[in-house]
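User: Hand in any protein.

Assistant:
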Amino acid sequence: MQCYFIDKEFGKVVVTFRRGMKNVRCRWRGNRLYMSAPYGMEKQLEGLVDADRDKIRALNHQKITFHDGQVIPCFHTTLTISTDAKLTTNCVAHGIDPADGVSLYMRVPADLDLESDAATRALSKVISLLFGRIAHRYLIPYAQSEAARLGLKPRGFEIGKGTVKLGHCTRGGVIQLSRHLMLLPEPLVQYVVCHELAHLTHMDHSPAFHALLDSYLDGRSAELDRQIAHFPWPILR
């Protein structure tokens, strides 16, 4: 038997219950956590994740670093990272390139060790904050066009801060989209947007919900879900 639950840090956790098992096992596949557990532990799993959170986190060996001249593909734009000898320590310049009004830039001090864990944490936070400022320019018009394509009329769209939860549909019909969607290619952004739009009809993850979502995506929902699970996020979230 297989099921899943949503963890506050790890997102969608897929659980398979197996006969004959005595202990819980965890493994990562891309960005998704998979657990194998004995039957009878259905109500204990979320507590076990909380108890072993540090160990589970350590199992995910994805290493993220930045480098001078790096170009990060973003939704309908790019983000270029470069060093600048004029910048002082702890000073980072970032924004929308005035030359084209679309592409993004981030300039960092030339003496910053871009391969350090401290730099990864700091620059990931700066990039996230940058997306928080500009995501509405890119994501909301796209989401509105998807709603129009499907003949749907949500009450509105908002940009949120979600790191694990990339989208949410409120019971009032407002679609919230994480600023971190800016790091995904268009097909995966479409998947998240359509997922939340399908919740306007079904506020659960029932077979009817998945059938509706699949119709919105021309039968690609399972494949796009797999791609999100294995997407190589270029920043810490």
In short: The helical segments are 45-51, 53-58, 117-150, 186-198, 207-216, 221-229. The two ends are 31 Å apart (CA to CA). The mean pLDDT is 91.
